[in-house]
Amino acid sequence: MATGQxxxxxxxxxxxxxxxxxxxxxxxxxAELFHPQWPSSLREITSLxxxxxxxxxxxxxxxxxxxxxxxxxxxxxxxxxxxxxxxxRKELDAGLVDYxxxxxxxxxxxxxxxxxRLAQLEDDNLMERVKISIHNYFLYLVEREHREVSRMLRTSxxxxxxxxxxxxxxxxxxxxxTDHDTFIAHVLTEGLNVAAWVSLxxxxxxxxxxxxxxRNIIKVYKRISHAPIFFVADT
Length: 235
Hints:
Layout: H1 2-34, H2 42-54, E1 58-59, E2 65-70, H3 94-107, E3 112-118, H4 124-176, H5 183-225, E4 229-233
Helix pairs in contact: 3-5, 4-5
């Protein structure tokens, strides 16, 4: 009987939904009529946005994205603080580093090259040392980020262990006390229980919040550290 009642009640709902579906189809048809270029799904919207982003970059003959940087001279690529240090040990200009990171993040998984436009080209030996210094700098950033990841994992592990210890201590005390024990004893066990879960949540949140961004930035650093670098004269 219950099944029959559900079937009887379902019919009016289906009948009401049919006009709504018809109206939705008419609206969709009108939208396509007046705006035939409108994307029909979120995937298409994302694809169009990505194509629009990539269209801002020139490509090489073999269809690699070209990340171009206009620089007056080689020294403009480096931090002024390291004027007397050799190129292989110099720190790159912060603006250049940020631009490369943003560009490589923006183009996603596309193959790319880095091309510097200089007012005047230097000798090949110097150019090669500059390429090595750029690659080495981003390899250094990879190592630094790995250290940060290790520190984050240690912190999460410490919080997790503390949380487990406090949680077991709370359970043990809770089993030791009786209904005749003082109110303070009950408050103490509840406080330990809360502290344990806070510590466990901090461990999990620290890992989940930091792991993905740090992993992604390491991938970006690695891609830049292995990217082909070219120098051309600005004509």
